[in-house]
Design a protein that fits this description.
alpha+beta; BirA Bifunctional Protein, domain 2; Rossmann fold; 2 domains; 8-stranded mixed sheet; 18 helices; 16 strands; 19% strand
Length: 433
C-alpha cells in the first residue's frame, strides 16, 4: 500500500486540543459580548460567486481573492471577508430582515497570499455590524464593543485608533491630488505603521506624487494626542473643504458618544493618518493595536454606506468591525494570557479492571448529568498508566473504582494537583466532586 505523506497547505493550521481550549474560550467571551450588545447570529457559505466578491476590496484586496477555478473558469471563490457576503444577504433577504439589523458572525475566511507571522491563508474572523443606522452612534457602539471585548480578554492597554475616510478624501482634494488617484494615495498611507514614514514617502515618490503634497499631508495629519485639540487644529487647516469639515464634525460626535459610554481617551485615539486599505469604506474607520508584541491590528473596521447598494440598487447605511482571532490568540499565547483556560476534562474515572468497567461507566454518567466534564479510561491498562493519562489531559481528579472499595460502597478520589487521596461513598460522589 502506498503511504500518503500527511501534510497541510501552507498558510493553514491544525488545532490540537491544547490550542482549541484557548480558542474556544476566546470565542466564548467574544460571542457573549456580541449577544450582550444585542447582535444576532448569521452564517454564510464558504464559497461565493466570483462576481459577488470582486470590485469591492481595491486593487490589492482583489489580488488576494482565493478563486477556485471551478470547472475551468473563475466562477466561484472562497470568501475574502464576512462583510461582503453579509451585504449580499441583506439584499437577498430584505423581506425577512428587520432594520436596524445587528448581526454577528464567526467563520473562516481565505486570502491567496504568502503566509507570514500573523497572516494565514485561512483564518477566522469575528464580525459585528450594524445595518440601517446612519448616525455615528452606531460606530461608537461598535468601538465600545471592541473595547469591552479587549478588556475581557485581558488587553488592558489595547488602543482603538480612529479616523474618517471623508476626512482623508477632503484632505486629498485640498492637496490637489486627483480624485482617481486618491484611493491609491490612501492605500500607500495605510502602510505607515507597517513600513514607516521613510518607506511611505519613497513609495509616494515612486508613484509620482508631488513632494510638496506629501509634505503637506504629513504636516496636516500630525497629531499631538489630545482629541479635541487635534480635531480643532485640522478643522482650521481644512475649513474650506466641506467634506473634511463635516467628517471632523462627525468625529467630534463620535468621540462624545464614546465618552458617554465610558470609553476613555487612552483606549480610543484620533489617528488622522489611519486609512484602512479596503475600498468600500465611506466614513469612520478604526483598528485596534497593542504595542507588545507587534503583530499588526487585532481588529479593524469602519463605515460602508454604499456597499449594500451594489447588490440592491439602494444604498443602506452600515458600519462594523472584524476581530482577527488568529492574531488575538497569537498575542495571548506569547504573553501567556489565560493559560489553562477553557472547558477541560475535570474528572477521570479509572476502573481497576474489566470487572469494574460497568460501574465506572455508570458513575461517569451520573457525574456528567450533574454537569461535571468526565472521561472514562475503560481499557485494561495498569492504574499507573491511567494516572499518567489523567495528568496529560489535565484532569483535576481521578476516581478509582476498585473491588475492595466497591465491597464497602466507596471509591477512591485522588486530587491530581495536591496528590491527596480520599474515599467517597458512591451515593455521595457527585456532591463531593
Amino acid at each position: 500500500m502506498d503511504i500518503i505523506k500527511p501534510r497541510i497547505m501552507k498558510g493553514t493550521r491544525d488545532f490540537l486540543p491544547d490550542d482549541m481550549y484557548l480558542r474556544q474560550e476566546v470565542i466564548r467571551i467574544i460571542t457573549d459580548h456580541f449577544v450582550r450588545y444585542g447582535f444576532q447570529p448569521l452564517a454564510t457559505p464558504a464559497m461565493e460567486y466570483f462576481d459577488v466578491l470582486t470590485g469591492k476590496y481595491g486593487d490589492e484586496g482583489e489580488g488576494l481573492i482565493f478563486d477556485l477555478a471551478y470547472k475551468g473558469g473563475r466562477e466561484v471563490a472562497l470568501k475574502y471577508d464576512l462583510t461582503v457576503p453579509m451585504c449580499r444577504v441583506i439584499a437577498q433577504y430584505k423581506d425577512k430582515i428587520v432594520m436596524p439589523f445587528k448581526r454577528y458572525q464567526i467563520q473562516p475566511v481565505w486570502r491567496a497570499e504568502k503566509p507570514q507571522k500573523g497572516r494565514l491563508r485561512e483564518f477566522f474572523q469575528c464580525d459585528a455590524d450594524v445595518v440601517g443606522v446612519a448616525d455615528v452612534s452606531a460606530d461608537a457602539e461598535i468601538i465600545a464593543l471592541i473595547t469591552d471585548i479587549m478588556t475581557a480578554l485581558g488587553f488592558e492597554n489595547a488602543v482603538t485608533q480612529i479616523n474618517h475616510r471623508g476626512l482623508l478624501t477632503g484632505l486629498m482634494e485640498k492637496l490637489g491630488i486627483a480624485e482617481e488617484r486618491a484611493p491609491q494615495a490612501m492605500r500607500i498611507l495605510d502602510k505607515l505603521d507597517k513600513v514607516g514614514e521613510d518607506a511611505v514617502r519613497a513609495e509616494y515618490a515612486d508613484a509620482g506624487f508631488e513632494k510638496t503634497a506629501v509634505d503637506d499631508l504629513f504636516s496636516i495629519t500630525t497629531a499631538a494626542g489630545n482629541v479635541e485639540d487635534d480635531i480643532a487644529a485640522m478643522t482650521g487647516e481644512l475649513k474650506s473643504n466641506d467634506r473634511a469639515r463635516e467628517s471632523l464634525e462627525e468625529l467630534t460626535r463620535l468621540f462624545g458618544y464614546l465618552d458617554e459610554m465610558g470609553v476613555s481617551s487612552d483606549r480610543a485615539a484620533f489617528s488622522p493618518r489611519l486609512a484602512r486599505g479596503l475600498a468600500y469604506y465611506t466614513g469612520p474607520v478604526h483598528e485596534t493595536v497593542v504595542e507588545t508584541p507587534k503583530v499588526g491590528s487585532l481588529s479593524g473596521g469602519g463605515r460602508y454606506d454604499e456597499l449594500i447598494g451594489i447588490f440592491s440598487g439602494v444604498d443602506v447605511p452600515a458600519t462594523g468591525m472584524a476581530l482577527g482571532l488568529e492574531r488575538i490568540i497569537q498575542v495571548m499565547a506569547e504573553l501567556k494570557m489565560m493559560e489553562g483556560a477553557g472547558e477541560r476534562i475535570e474528572v477521570l474515572v479509572a476502573p481497576f479492571g474489566q470487572d469494574e468497567v460497568g460501574l465506572a461507566l455508570k458513575l461517569a454518567r451520573e457525574l456528567r448529568q450533574s454537569g461535571v466534564n468526565t472521561d472514562v479510561y475503560a481499557t485494561g491498562d495498569r492504574l499507573k498508566k491511567k494516572f499518567k493519562y489523567a495528568d496529560r489531559i489535565g484532569a483535576q481528579k481521578v476516581i478509582v473504582v476498585a473491588p475492595d472499595e466497591i465491597a464497602r460502597g466507596v471509591v477512591k478520589v485522588k486530587d491530581m494537583q495536591t496528590g491527596e487521596e480520599k474515599e467517597a461513598a458512591m451515593d455521595k460522589l457527585v456532591d463531593m466532586v
